[in-house]
User: What shape does this take?
Amino acid sequence: MKNFIKNHKKGCMIGGIVFLILFLIVTIWLFVIPLFSNNKYGDRLEGIEDHKISNSTVSDIEGSLKENKMVSDVEYHNEGRILNFIITVSSEMSVEDAKALDDVILDKISDKNKEYYDIQILIDTEEENDNYPIVGYKHKTEDNFVYGKDGGSSE
Assistant: This one.
């Protein structure tokens, strides 16, 4: 083997360099290029086509929430598998009544979609109030919302 390498030094060097270049190309192709794909969620949104939240469902939720005289505004935003609702209420609304608004949202979303999406609610007022904002979160595997610290400043 030593004699072969000694007699074919140029060929062995070229072969070694070609092998290293091919190894680098394959490594980059398999491991680096997929990191630059345009889908920031990877495969986490698999099956989302079967779980679309229609505009009519969102409009129905917004309409049902606004039927409450204490609710002044409702905003909706879908971020991947999280449905975000920002509800603006009167500062006179009690915290318990504000938390009960989550039932309106859950009633309008199908069971199939409740098992697919996480739902997040931010309840706030236009005026300063020690009881607000309130944040509620429902994981797709849970049946009810869990609320964080009730309102107040973090100071």
In short: The helical segments are 2-7, 9-32, 55-66, 95-99, 101-108, 111-114. The beta strands are 71-79, 82-89, 118-125, 134-138, 146-147. The two ends are 76 Å apart (CA to CA). The chain has a mean pLDDT of 85.
